[in-house]
Amino acid sequence: MTDNASREVLDIFAEGRELYKQKNFALALEKFKGVLALNPEDGPSQVFCTRCEHYMEAPPSEGWDGVFEMKTK
């Protein structure tokens, strides 16, 4: 991956993280999928895609601070 492509991946991921923290999970999911289109092996984006899908089905509580709490091992 070129430096420009790496920078683009980082920028898109950062946008996704910001949307995720704002509880805008649908748009965050689009950003993380955009990262995966550029770099299918990006582990953090894979994780955040799963988390976005989870929170779209079961939204976090009102006082959510952005931390994902695992309910099972």
Task: Supply the key terms.
single chain; 73 residues; mainly alpha; elongated
Please tell me about this protein's structure:
The chain is an all-alpha fold and 73 residues long. The protein has one domain (3-57). 66% of the residues lie in helices and 0% in strands. It is built from three helices and no strands. Helix 1 packs antiparallel against helix 2. The longest helix has 19 residues, at 3-21. The chain starts with a helix and ends in a 16-residue tail after the last helix.
Describe this structure in a few short sentences.
This protein is mainly α and 73 residues long.
Distance between the termini: 34 Å
By helix and strand content, what is the structural category? mainly alpha
Q: Unreliable segments (pLDDT under 50, ≥5 consecutive)?
A: none
Give me the number of helical elements. 3
Mean pLDDT: 92
Question: Number of DSSP strands?
Answer: 0
Task: Please compute the radius of gyration using only Cα atoms.
Answer: 13 Å
Strand proportion: under 5%
Please trace the helix and strand order, writing H or E for each element: HHH
Described by strand count, sense and barrel closure, the largest sheet is: none
Number of domains: 1
Share of helical residues = 55-70%
